[in-house]
Structures are given as structure tokens and as C-alpha cells.
Specification:
This protein is of the alpha/beta class. The chain is built from 21 helices and 18 strands.
């Protein structure tokens, strides 16, 4: 810990110690030359656990996972604009998850910028679109002040990633001043007038639906949702969400279907759609002759607050306004009595996960097409938290799991990922070993971008020829996941049958530390 009363602070010291004073306790870093003074500042600031990541996409995804579990922002350390771009996909996912995150981006010294060195770039222009706040500390005196601003801004009005650019000369120069204390912003509450109007609209509706996300997916929010369900309101979550509490003893809402036609069929007859903690549902992609906005024709819509609102409190207030005191039954604890047998597929993997997943586990879901059967199989498993692929940018699963494990070292973390997705950020395995992270990774190995094969037919792109097929298959050469994992120190095994997977997963749940199971499933 840096004591500003007895030590002359550099700008880097002022920034780092200000964040530590505000409660930031983790930094996921991929530093370069511009960040050397930040690295040594982290040496002196012992309240922050610095985790080295071999790729910026691992650092940003891990910061996302850390904040989803703790509710507090982590710091990332990125090397100039190029480093930010390397981490950009998982910053995009974090923004869609409404995750607070403080990205500290090193930059060239201010006088050096005008020479346009090879790594020079418009960091403001690159980072701005995915930052809900962005500023550059162009003088040493501003470093602590802007650190406090960045921390505060990461909480909202709607939480999200912020970017604080630190030029090298602002980092190395003495004269830094801590930013001081700050009051953490809170999510807004939905007005009584809107709540009363929603209760009245529900009373008039024949098939009301409430679409939820945000704090509504925590335990308190789901208890209120269960009351609304009992009162006749259908409860649906977004297709992808930052974090949902689920399992035995927890009310389980429906989930918005991924494909537009499936969602529209599922919503047929809905005459009132309310949203809380989210917005009206939109198809992931446009398709010929299919809708983009997933709202039935003639359906009334009501907005009860987006990501800037406390949706758990919104649901509780709505249930109170409706006089809804009784609650729908939560999911009972119900595990498969015996191990699955025969062919290894997503359903049998799901059965084994439901059998052996311990209480209070955390699941990081980047399995795309193969993870849905696991999701459905674990409705009645031990209580756990599920983290989804909010922004659709694959390669999130392993870093998200790393961050969750750093945040909650006493909880088992399970990462579900496809072989294509995991190749984006397989460097996370190395950091898991270095940190002793208790993560069991399940890689669905089918040597294919399976979801893209499905989408090829749905978009009307025509019959695939040899070039198209080559673009969607990732075999030849086949990726040896066991060797890849073992090269980074992860204990790994490959399985081809349901029985072998069940045994491997049961063993992994009994052990601590990183492990990987390559599940060879049909393509």
C-alpha cells in the first residue's frame, strides 16, 4: 500500500492506489513498455491482486467474470490502442452484460505522440464506442482524480466498461495526488406511476409476458418473479444474460428463444409485453422474410426500466401493487439417479453436470449450440450461478471462468465452450494454472463451427460448395485439446462415451485446480 503522506507519488502510484482505496482488488494485465510504471506501482500497491494474461482478450474477459460475481469492477492493464483492440471483443460482451470494468490503457508520452511512432493510434476513437466513459490523464496532477471519476462512472447510470488512458509521462512523473473518496451510484427505481400503470395493464391483458434481466435474475428478483408468475404473468429472461441464479430452490423463468421464428411461435397470443432490466427483444440477426423485432403484431408494450434500473425492486413493487403474495413453486432438487450411457452428446454431458455439480458452483457458458441441453438439464441441479454470452462474441468462456475463479476461490467454476470458441482465448488456461484457479473446462469437440452450419441454411445463402464448407469446418488438422492443455500445465483428458465423461467429470468435481475435459461429440 502506498502512503501518500510519506512518499512522493508518481502518476501511476496515484492512479493505482486511488483505485485500491475505492475497493478495486484485482487487475488483469497484459502490459507493454508504456505501462512499466503501472507495473511497478502494482508492486507497491499490495491490496490489488495482479493477474498476468498472455492475451488482452483474456484480461478483459476475466475482468468481466470477476465483476459479474463480485459486483465490483476489476482493473485491466492494456498496451496502447492495439492492446485495447485485442481485448475489444470481450469488452463488447462486458458492455452487453452491463458489467462495471475499468480499462487502464497505456499511451505514449504526450510530447511523443506528435511523432506518430509505430504503435501510435487514436485510442479515444478506438475505445470510445465500447466505453461508457473515457478520458486521458494528460498531466500527472489528473491521474488520481480521473481514477475516481472512472470508478464512479463504471457504475452507471447503467454499469459498463470505462477507459482511462494513461500517457507514459503522466505515469512516471512525480506529483500525483490521490483522487479521494467517492459515493457509489445506485440503480434507479421505477416510479410508482409506472408500476401502477403496469399492474392495471396486466389486469386487462389475457396473455401478459414480462421480459427480465439485470438484478431481477438474482435471488430476490426471482422470488418476486415467482409471485408474478403465480398471479398469471408469464416470466421470460433474455436469451443471454450476465448472471442468473438457478437450480434447486430457485424459481426458474422461461428463456427467450434464440431463433426469431421459434421466439415468435413461443410468444403467439401475447397481448402485453413488459420489460424490466432490459429492452424489447430483437432477433440476433436479420433473415429473409423474418422479423427483427420479436413482438407479436398488436401486442401492447410497456417499459419498466432498462439496465439503469433495479429490476429486482421493480418486480417486487409490481407484485405488491397486484396483491400477489403467493409464489410459484421453485425448482426441486432432482438429479439423474444413474450415470448416462452410450453416445456422448450435449444431452448426456448435461445429465452428468446435473449429477455432479456441487452446490454454489459457477457456470461460464460459451458453448453456443451444445450448451443449451446442459442449461436445460441443470434446472433442478444444486443451486448455482450461470453466466451467459451476452454480446455474442465467442471466446468469452475461458476468460470469464478465470475471472470468476479469482473472484470466488472457494467456489467450483465450470466453463462450457466449443472447440472453435476456445481457440480464441486458450491462453486463459495458462493463467488458470498460474493462479491455481479451480476451473473445470468442458470443450465440446466436433471440429466444426456448428452454429454457422445451421445459420448457413437459415440465411438462404445457397448450397455450400467446397470453399464454403472449408470456412465452417475446423478439422484437418484436428486440434489436440489434451496436448494443448497439458502444454500449459492443465491436467486434461479426452472422452468419447457418456460413461467416460461422467467418470471424468465426477473426478474433476472432487479435485481442486484447473482441469480440462475434451468431449468428442457429433458435429
Amino acid at each position: 500500500m502506498v502512503d501518500s503522506d510519506t512518499t512522493k507519488l508518481t502518476g501511476a502510484d496515484a492512479l493505482v492506489s486511488t483505485l485500491a482505496d475505492l475497493g478495486v482488488s484485482a487487475c488483469f494485465a497484459n502490459p507493454g513498455t508504456s505501462e512499466m510504471n503501472l507495473v511497478t506501482a502494482l508492486d507497491r500497491e499490495t491490496r490489488i491482486n495482479a493477474v498476468l494474461c498472455l492475451f488482452e482478450g483474456v484480461a478483459t474477459g476475466a475482468a468481466d467474470g470477476y465483476a459479474r460475481i463480485t459486483g465490483e469492477p476489476a482493473m485491466t492493464l492494456l498496451h496502447l490502442g492495439a492492446g485495447y483492440l485485442n481485448g475489444g471483443a470481450n469488452i463488447h460482451n462486458a458492455k452487453r452484460a452491463d458489467t462495471p470494468m475499468i480499462n487502464v490503457i497505456g499511451d505514449h508520452a504526450v510530447p511523443h505522440r506528435r511523432y506518430d511512432a509505430p504503435l501510435n493510434s487514436d485510442i479515444m476513437g478506438l475505445a470510445g464506442p465500447n466505453s461508457i466513459w473515457i478520458k486521458s490523464a494528460d498531466s500527472v496532477e489528473t491521474t488520481g482524480k480521473l481514477a475516481t471519476e472512472a470508478w464512479t462512472a463504471s457504475f452507471g447510470p447503467a454499469p459498463g466498461p470505462v477507459s482511462l488512458i494513461l500517457p507514459a509521462d503522466s505515469a512516471w512523473t512525480e506529483g500525483g495526488v490521490k483522487g479521494g473518496k467517492a459515493v457509489r451510484p445506485t440503480l434507479r427505481e421505477t416510479s410508482k406511476e409506472k408500476i401502477d400503470a403496469a399492474a392495471a395493464a396486466i389486469g386487462r391483458a389475457k396473455q401478459p409476458v414480462l421480459l427480465i434481466n439485470g438484478t431481477a435474475l438474482g435471488e430476490d428478483g426471482l422470488k418476486a418473479a415467482a409471485r408474478l408468475k403465480k398471479a398469471g404473468v408469464r416470466i421470460i429472461t433474455d436469451t443471454f444474460f450476465g448472471r442468473q441464479r438457478r437450480g434447486a430452490g430457485v424459481f426458474f423463468p422461461d428463456r427467450m428463444q434464440y431463433f426469431a421464428e421459434g421466439a415468435m411461435n413461443d410468444l403467439e397470443g401475447t397481448d402485453l409485453m413488459l420489460t424490466a432490466g432490459t429492452h424489447l427483444p430483437v432477433a440476433f440477426f436479420a433473415y429473409p422474410d423474418k422479423p427483427s423485432l420479436l413482438v407479436p403484431e398488436g401486442c401492447e408494450t410497456m417499459d419498466l426500466g432498462g439496465a439503469d434500473s433495479d429490476s429486482a425492486k421493480t418486480l417486487a413493487a409490481l407484485a405488491d401493487a397486484m396483491g400477489a403474495k403467493e409464489a410459484a413453486d421453485p425448482a426441486p432438487l432432482e438429479k439423474p439417479a444413474s450415470a448416462p450411457t452410450g453416445e456422448l452428446n450435449a444431452a448426456s454431458v448435461g445429465a452428468s453436470v446435473a449429477r455432479h455439480m456441487p452446490e454454489n458452483a459457477i457456470v461460464s457458458d460459451d458453448g453456443v449450440s451444445n450448451s443449451l441441453p446442459v442449461f436445460l438439464s441443470t434446472i433442478k441441479a444444486e443451486p448455482h450461478d450461470w453466466m451467459g454470452l451476452t454480446g455474442g462474441a465467442i471466446g468469452q468462456g475461458l476468460p470469464l471462468a478465470l475471472g470468476a475463479a479469482v473472484a470466488a476461490p472457494d467456489r467450483k467454476v465450470i466453463a462450457l465452450t466449443g472447440d472453435g470458441a476456445a481457440m480464441y482465448t486458450n491462453q486463459a488456461l495458462w493463467s488458470m494454472v498460474r493462479e491455481g484457479a479451480d476451473v473445470t473446462t468442458i470443450v465440446f469437440v466436433n471440429h466444426s463451427y456448428r452454429i454457422l452450419n445451421i445459420e448457413l441454411a437459415r440465411t438462404g445463402a445457397g448450397n455450400p460448395g467446397p470453399t464454403a464448407k472449408e470456412m465452417l469446418e475446423i478439422g484437418g488438422p484436428d486440434i489436440d485439446w489434451v496436448s494443448l492443455a497439458q502444454s500449459m500445465g492443465v491436467e486434461a483428458t479426452a472422452v468419447t462415451t457418456a460413461e467416460d465423461f461422467d467418470a471424468a467429470f465426477e473426478e474433476a468435481m472432487k479435485q481442486k485446480g484447473p482441469r480440462l475435459i475434451a468431449a468428442l461429440v457429433p458435429g
